[in-house]
Design brief:
alpha+beta; four-stranded mixed β-sheet; 8 helices; elongated
């Protein structure tokens, strides 16, 4: 089974429970917390250790010691399920997919932005408002990466649409126009 299909199966089940109980935002925060700890490395080494070295019970005890006071019972049960199924390696992907399901359920698109220069919080907010108005969709600016090759301006990707407002794109268009004369 492909990883995305596997991840989607787990996250759809968790999302359905979250929707039913009105806890999707809480579960999204919980998964972000757990996945962040996983990505730090130490937790990953413990949970990825073969059962011959560390039993599933001991792995669950580690999770309880780290998260029982911070994460919801539902999220703790989800983490235990991942341990039982030896699937803790998909925790980060589950976090990302769960967030995508939350946004999808709320008709929110995620914009990935490339900028010639770093953006301040105020610039991100203005960009979000301008893109929402331009596209007629509710948006969240997800990742913002700095790409000096743009020279100036922005390149925005929303779903499969790419909006290129960069100086390098404008220069390429100008060059193409001049060469066609």
């Amino acid at each position: 089974m492909k990883e995305h299909t596997l991840v989607r199966r787990y996250t759809q089940s968790l999302f359905a429970v979250g929707e039913k109980l009105g806890l999707t935002d809480r579960l999204r925060e919980d998964l972000a917390c757990a996945a962040g700890a996983w990505e730090d490395g130490d937790l990953r080494r413990v949970l990825s250790a073969p059962a011959i070295l560390i039993s599933d019970r001991e792995k669950k005890d580690v999770l309880a010691a780290l998260f029982a006071s911070r994460l919801s019972e539902i999220c703790m049960n989800f983490l235990s399920l991942l341990v039982d199924k030896n699937r803790t390696d998909i925790l980060g992907a589950c976090r990302d997919d769960f967030e995508a399901l939350v946004y999808e359920s709320r008709n929110i698109e995620v914009a990935r932005v490339e900028s010639a220069f770093p953006l301040s919080d105020a610039q991100r907010q203005r960009l979000t408002e301008a893109l929402e108005k331009h596209l007629g969709k509710k948006l969240i600016v997800g990742s913002v990466t700095v790409n000096p090759e743009l020279i100036g301006g922005l390149r925005v990707t929303v779903s499969d649409d790419v909006l290129d407002f960069s100086l390098s794109a404008a220069m390429t268009d100008m060059k193409r126009s001049l060469l066609s004369l």
